[in-house]
## 1
Amino acid sequence: MMTSTVPTPSALGLAAVLLVLGLAGVLIRRNLLLVLVSIEIMLNAAGLAFVAAGARWHRADGQVMFLFILATAAAEVAVGLALVVQQSRRIGTLDVDAASELEG
Amino acid sequence: MPTFWVAAAVAVVATVMVLTRSQPVHALLYLVVSFLAVAVVLYTLGAPFVAALEVVVYAGAIVVLFLFVVMLLSLDATAHRERTSWPTYLGATILAAVILVELGVLVSREPIVAQAGAIGPREVGLALYGPYVLGVEIASVLLLSGAVGAFHVGRRDEQDAGAFYAESDQRVPGGREEPVLEPVSVDDTLPAAERPARDGRHAAGEEAE
């Protein structure tokens, strides 16, 4: 593995494109599960940006941040999927527009 | 350098495919391809450790968790009854094959041992258990709270967590209409000999409480 010859703006540009794609997914998708998937795409893109920045300064800090983002994403996916399961049980559908009434 | 651009293109195409698939399982499989492509990008950036972590944790645990939920909720219940036609396979196969070829090129071209430019596990480990050790502890607490929170949010009824937590699933057919918590009289907690006399109750306390 030679020294990273990838120019940093290119890597950050890729992270930006993936982030915007994830954001589009959150806005476009109607299935709650796939909205969560799009959030995961965004988190992945943010982690990629951190690693690109760490590679630019040739420090390990970018990878450390990626690890923390990974842990956060895992915990958030666990709770988010529990919420998806609860909506499926209580409302019956995973349509994001179905959960439109607040209780009480 | 060209490996970065190829992997970046595969990642973007796979992500667009994730956003446009109508069936959740197809979208999740394209998501795996996207994560693998991002792992190759991370490798070209000189971060082999997080490239491995991306595959193991993101593609290998988080996406699997999504697939478990899809299976649990039977979201694609009708899909498996149809024979999947080969055009459905074609896109993901092409993208995955590109990644495979790229990995072969990367692995065969240079020694796998990280050279001077790459920041390998050793440096990341020294940073994690050096200046970032507080973050490691906080991350572990976060994961614990995530696990406990997921259990709490996802519990269904008294089968999962005991009678005390039984709740009314009012919109689920066959669910209870009211909570099953019954008022407990203080008298029941007294020793049997001291309970006030009631109709039909023995003084020697046949109740468990």
## 2
Amino acid sequence: MNPLHLWALGAAGVGLALPIAIHLMTRPRGTRFALPTYQFLIAAAGISARHNRMRSILILTARALALLLLALGFARFSERTRAEPLAGGTTRRVIVLDCSMSMNAHSGGNLRVFDQARTVAQRLVSDGTAQEAELILAAQTARPIFGQTSANVNALQEELGRASVQPQILDTGAALAAVAQSLKKVPEGDRPGCEVVILSDFQRTSWVQASFTALPKGVRVKLVNAREAGALANVGVASAQISGVAEAGAACVALAEIVNFSASACDAEVELAFDDHSWTRRVRLGAAARANVAFELTSLAPGWRYGFVRVRSVEGIRDALTEDNSFPLSVYVRPARRIVLISVERPTEVGGPAYFLSRALAASPDANVDIKRIQPGQLDGEPDGELLKADLVVLANCRKLSDGQASGVARLLARGTSILLIANTALDADNLRAIETASGAALRLPVEFVPLRNQAATSHTGLSALTGRGGGDNGERFLVSADTQRRPFKIFGEALPQLTRTLRLSGGLGSALREQNDAANQSIRAKYADGAAALVVVRAGAGRLAALNMNVSGESGTLAAHPIFVPMIQELTQELIEDDSANRAANKPGRPMSLLLPASAAANEAEEDAAKSAARWRVVRADGSPVGTGAAGDPVFKADTNGVTLLWPECGAPDVYRVERSGSTAGVFVVAPPVPEESDLAALETDVLKRRIEETQAVSVSSSSLDDEMADTNKEHFEIFFLGALVCLFLEMAMLKAFRS
Amino acid sequence: MDPKGAPSRFLEPAALQELNNLRFAGKRIVEGSFAGKHRSRMRGSSVEFAGFREYSPGDDLRRLDWKVLARTKRPYVRTYDEETNLSCLLVVDTSASMDFGARRGAKTAADKRGASLSKLDYCRFLVAALAYLIVENRDQAGLALMGEKLDTWCEPGSTQQHLDKLLNIMQRAKISPRTRLAEGLATLFTLCRRRGVLVLVSDFLDSDVDEMFKAIRLFRHRRFEVILFHLAHPGELELPEGRSFKFFDPEGGGETDADPQQVQAEYQKAFEAHQTRVRNMAIGAGCEYQFIHTATPYPEAIRAYLRMREASA
């Protein structure tokens, strides 16, 4: 019996006494009448005193039974009130309670799966069948209460009472490792008396790859499915992001992906609440289908902007889980595109790479572009203000960079400033190597750029020059492949081959592939006919580095005069300056995250004491409430020479978080809900898990459903009780009819 | 006897006045101890000449008709029909079922006639009147009260004092919890020394009517004239009005809840079946049967019966 329902048992007692009282009070009380011809009356009515007594007894029994069944139904009485003690001497029980987000789903009886699991856990803790118990609250991280089994049942009950669902995924490995840790000190001989009870919804996405090898051998494992049988439907927002470069005056699009995790089609109303505005769309979702919803955002004011995509209503299915109906998103809207062009060319010099690039960079159709030209020498030492505020640094015709200058470029990359390097000469190949060296592990180009054979190899690294020129005999080179699914060639689409047919390129570098893998393939966006990489885009630190292996001067080739030049540079620029830190949605609740704050925001931090600097920072939610109370797991700020980094060992709930420095917003990031990991509510059969455990581990496994474990909260039992009560009432009516009373 | 001097409340002067011209006589020749108005089956020296027969040794010489002897030279003795008195046994059923129908405040038969009287009270009036008629005719009246057994037995007598005694016994008659007339009648049979008339007044709600008639047949075998007065109260013929009653058997047969409206028809059928059965068994046993509704004033019931009896004699 669940102690929570003791009151109901009292009610059952009263309920049992009630029908007797009613029966006694309402039984026919006719006027007593002495009738000498009583025998004729009996013969006439066909009844007898015995029948009369039988009638009373049967009716009373039916009434009492009806009310008793009703009371039992409400009391959720369990016939397994007194559980059998665990066999095997000393009994220890470790209960793993799944606290992941999917446990918040509402099952058929409108009860949360978690509440049902917790009720079972409370009974398992206190039913007296185990001498010692341990509770592990499992989500992204597993939190054992004691670290080992304990007889302090009251503390476990209190913890159970405080336990709540975390908006996190379930890390089954961490949970099972915690189980192993809890039973580590148990002697091997006592393990038959140990039982591990896993209370979960056994969501397929969480448990399908669970490894049970960590479980100690010899223990018994019990899998209790806390969810009622039957599939649960769910609709959630899988992702939401701002597509395009968010710049003042430029339009961008908010894209949301809505997923229907059910086997039935439905209609959903999706709302984007963004920057004090809201837009609503209705979307039809097929069974187990996804749909993209786009919201065009225009006239966004400069600065950090954020909002939420929400599924406001769902028609056609019952949305069991509402926690995944909201997805945060944020974006930084630039007031203007700030580009620093580093070149040895003078601004007045015409025809050089910097000349053509500056015009291509400034040719944005809708953004304000502010291009500053500096000399490579300004890269020495700490980056100045122009460099720190730049959205993009372009290196074109820089000649040979010194190590200090290369380190300066590396620092910019580490801080999140993207670099576009025009690789044309052997010096540029050297510069790339120098930047790569200065960046360390943060930058790894998939290819090694080397001078072509006819170029002067000023600082070869031992790699042989590539044979051939990759083109015609006159030194022309042709693009033979380009990734049209990605920038900068995506906008050309199917027309790209036709466009590049007339493109005559010359100069540039050869390249040698360092390793063949998917990352390398994705980084190389275009190739020449000789196999050399024409464009490589890689992530480096918080920024990105693009190496455009082309001669963009007007002296050779037709690139600068070709129609693809300006749009290609614009697209490449957009990709490089696109601030995807807020859209990456990589921050998940419970997981660690680090965020290098924008270089511009941390401009002066390096000059100050790190501790003082960090003290000025704080994280607040979208509603303004601060995050963290100084406890372990709260976000911390770490200042170093690269700037200020936000470290959060365990991200909080899905939301938009603002990073404030002395009251002003220095950055915004989002923590996204664990979709689709926790949204797909399809469950794995416990029997499947049971077989898997038995195959891999020498443990005894049993599985049971909620119906078995928690009969007192079992809807079916309640229905049986209710039906039984109805049958009894009908029986009573039939008896009343039969006895003519 | 002067009706005005009736010692009992069961002898009502008005009723007796109505019965003054009636005579309760036996249909058959009776066997009495005293001379009376009834023909005796014993022939002897009595008032009414019956005929002659030849003298046989042992005959009383005083009955020898000397004139016939003188004329015919042959000895003849005179024979006479001996006139004797009627011995009537009044048997009253005092079982609990006979107590049905009493209403508070009903002191006399004239007061709320019939329906307000219990069957036993009605029976008292009826038997008192019969006893009066019997004694008035210088016949003998005996009284037996029986329920489970023979409770009271008073041998027949014909004096005024005897009548008073009978009335007194009847007045003090106690209710017996059960009806078992068979046993009482059998006992009574052993106590009767003379044949006569047995008048049994009862509702015949006996648990074993067959046994009762077996006992009655004993009397019939002994040439008793048996008259059965079957009393029925209006409250028995029709169940009370209303829907909720807990009926119980006054003789301890149980109790039950019943809706009179639902069982009325079947009940009446069962009652009539019982009445028919008693009547048939009475006729079969050679008894006279008279069904008396207690709503009928008892003088009227007696008068009707006696006239019918006279007519059929």
